[in-house]
Amino acid sequence: MSDTNNHQPFGPRPTPLLRAHKRAFILLLFYIPLVLIPWIITMLLVYRPAMRSYWTYPSSSPEHTSPGYSEVMEGFQWKDYQQQRGWARAIPIMNAFAAILSIPVTSTVLAQAAVVFAQRRTPDQQLSVRHLFSLADRAWLDWGMLYKMLYWHEAGSKRVKMFMYGGAILVLCGAIQYPLVQITVPWDQISVPSSRDTRYISYLENPHSGYDWSSSLSRGYHLLGRDLEPAQMANLPADLIVPHIVGGLSTIAAGVTLPSFWETPDENTGHRSDEYTYRRSSYRYLTYLGDQSGFVAALPADTTTGVLREHIIRLNSSVSCTNLTVSAWPSTCSGTNPFQASFSYSEDYYNGNMTIDVCAPGDMGKHPWTFSRNRQALSEEVFFRFTGRNTSEHIGYESREDDVVHCTAQTARGYFELGNAYNGGVFGPLLEKWSDVAQSHDYVEPDSYNAYRERGFRPSEEDTWVGAATPAPSKGNQLPGPLTTSLLALFGPSSWAANIANLTANRTQENLDSTSDIPSGFLSPLCAAAPFASTSLAISSKYSQWCAVNGLAGLRSSLDSLLFGWDDPTMVKKWLDIAVFVANSATLTSHMDRDLLEWPDVTGRAIYTAEGLKIYKPSPSIATQVILTLIVTVHVFGLLGVAYWLQRWPAWTRTLDSMAVARISTYLDPSLLPPLKTVRLSARAPLKDVDGLVGIQEAEAEHAHSDRAGPSHQEAMAMETLSIASTAGKQATSSATPMMAAAGAGSVELGLGAPGIIAKRGKKQVAPSAAVADV
To answer: For residue 569, what are the CA distances in angstroms to 46, 67, 401?
Structure first.
């Protein structure tokens, strides 16, 4: 077949001068998701699991907590755990593939952009052949060349530098992302609740919730103890609790740890003082009960609940005492049912018969708290009056006059959050308002043995539920505030002082000294039962060793020595601090004593702990997140910007590869190119004066290939032939002449340094002479 027949209308279509190349778009279609998806998921996993938008992680330290966060309330199901673990494994793999492809893909996209950059797109555009060869060399990968470009000053250098340095930034952002992620984004192991950990909520509240707590996950929660509900606390009977407190006052001792005492962390550091452990197990501990640095709760101090958020009730009490004149004694002990007591005693130092009167205004048989879980404050007061003293001086001692000691107790009741994984294991402050139930794992289970037939409930701000904490105490038998309860235990009808006073009343000194009518073993328990007998804070403690061998006289002396100290405000404060602590502790823990109350052992709200599931999450710093996000954004959006720019312009070749450069070189004057030998970089200097832009020009009938482009003129290239080489595998014409013949008069061609502007895609390419041809 003749050459002419190859170009008949029914023959193969000739290759166009310009076309769109899609390699860059295909590469970015696969590459950008490898970069973007892992980082987006990483940032997501920093703050919450991948499964639920409203879930957050437990915080690793107390300063990261805030009252507004929401937790994994219902717990991880097995599928959630697998998904989280899957992302933790997939992200490093995707990052590794992205790192491998980063430089090749970015450079390939820039190489395709370099072709468009070297085409004449605007009338004022300038580009030398030196610039063109630098683009072909992919100088954005050559840091030495980038440095030398700083000294280029020929026309068009500014735009070339912007392209090269911009490309270098894109390459750098892609290259450093992976090592920076590996160095600055650690993966920490944390614990989160599983659906088995929260089964006691999710299943009891909704038995048909579908949680797979019975299959893939083992039970993870364990009972720590039970906390009284507010309505149950109101049902505590004073006639049973007060005798229990009397016993507690005699057994509290220095050197014995009191588990229900919680010390409040320092306001400045957020941590407990260095003396905390020493206080809780030493003699000095008892002197710190009233310094407002702690509180009382039902569970042992520093109890933690793992991945569960639980709240329990607490009582904070502080006592202050001062001396007043006798005129300050109230003429009438006010209140509907005030506590009043009076004791006579003998002061050894003065040989006088003295009287101590006690008045605590208010109602000693009324529960002082409401059923609300919000913070409540209670103020109580008591007056001690001492009369009948001998004002005459005794040998070695000052005379002492009648006086009054006034004490007040301030108590706050409310809830606090136990230490857990969400607050760094440090218990929270006293809450002013009851927390949102959706942010905790608090749950009131039925406290009966048929609980599986009943439904529990999430505790609200105020509940009246008492469960099995019945019967309610009779009127006047409710447990009062902590100070009044302490006074009942110290001076009330069932107190040690009242019992000893009754036992020794109306007896002569001879009867008191005699032990003949006292059963064996009777005195020892009575002596040991004195308040504060096991501490060194009570004057009566010095009598405890010989009390039993001195008959009733020893008991009476112990009582006198105890009553003697209540006119010293400092000593009274210490005693009342201890007494109030014991009263608060008994109030919050008596329901756990089956021998004390006839309530079932399931009384109260169950408090659980759970270790949870171990998962991994990224833990970069805020600065790392900002910097890496900026790097990823610049890299991804830079590539997308280049891709958008590429799709707007057609190009004569896909890349300025060796074949493209070789074809361009054939149209340069041989004198511009150095011979085959070692040359300096300065050998490129003559090329800076040669126009390197590829433009449109009107096609000529014949091409004078023997002429070459030089510094003083421009030569049109047969770009049709160049286009054939850049589209290997497609059948195309072997020369420009048949193409021009088919196009007819006014056909266009591409030329090195040609003045015609290459139009955007979809528009017609117009030669300077205004002849038009379709692309």
So the answer is: 56, 41, 15
Q: How many Å from the N-terminal Cα to the C-terminal Cα in the chain?
A: 28
- What 3-state DSSP class applies to 324? strand
Higher pLDDT, 90 or 743: 90
- Between CA 83 and CA 91 the distance in angstroms is 12
CA distance 40 to 189: 20
Residue 448 confidence (pLDDT): 59
Specify the 3-state DSSP secondary structure of 670. helix
CA angle (305, 310, 316) in 5-degree steps: 105
Please report, for the chain, the start and end positions of each structural domain, with discontinuous segments joined by +: 20-56+73-184+619-654, 221-503+570-610, 657-775
Assess contact for 495 and 485: CB atoms under 8 A.
Answer: no
The structure tokens 């002849």 sit at 771
What 3-state class would DSSP assign to 396? coil
Q: How far apart are alpha carbons 384 and 363 in whole angstroms?
A: 18
CA dihedral 133, 136, 140, 141 (to 10 degrees): -120
> What angle in degrees, to the nearest 10, is found between the helix axes of 157-184 and 78-117?
160
Give residue 191's pLDDT band: very low, low, confident or very high (50, 70, 90): confident
pLDDT digits (tens, 9 = 90+) for 115-164: 989 888 888 888 888 888 888 889 899 888 888 888 888 888 888 899 99
- Give the Cα separation of 594 and 269 in Å (integer): 41
Q: Beginning with the edge strand found earlier in the chain, give each strand of the sheet holding 403-417 in spatial order.
A: 261-263, 294-297, 311-324, 403-417, 376-387, 352-360, 339-347
**Beta-bridge partners for 356:** 343, 386
What one-letter code names the amino acid at 741?
A
The dihedral built from the CA positions of residue 103, 106, 112 and 113, taken in this order, carries a sign that is negative
Q: In 3-state terms, what secondary structure has residue 513?
A: helix
- Residue 721 amino acid letter: T
Winning range, highest mean pLDDT, from 146-160, 172-186, 592-606 = 172-186
Name the token pair of 726.
């850049």
pLDDT per residue over 541-578, tens digit each?
455 556 766 777 878 888 888 888 888 899 899 899 99
CA distance 275 to 273: 5
Q: Is the pLDDT of residue 367 over 80?
A: yes
Would the pTM count as exceeding 0.85?
no
Answer whether residue 325 shows pLDDT above 60: yes
More reliable by pLDDT, 404 or 154: 404
Of 563, 727, 684, the closest CA to residue 135 belongs to: 684
Query: H/E element holding 613?
Result: strand 613-618
SS3 19: strand
Question: Which is nearest to 612 in space by CA: 339, 306, 155?
Answer: 306
CB of 748 closer than 8 Å to CB of 698:
yes
Number of residues that this document lists for the chain: 775
pLDDT in tens, 680-704: 767 777 777 788 888 888 766 444 4
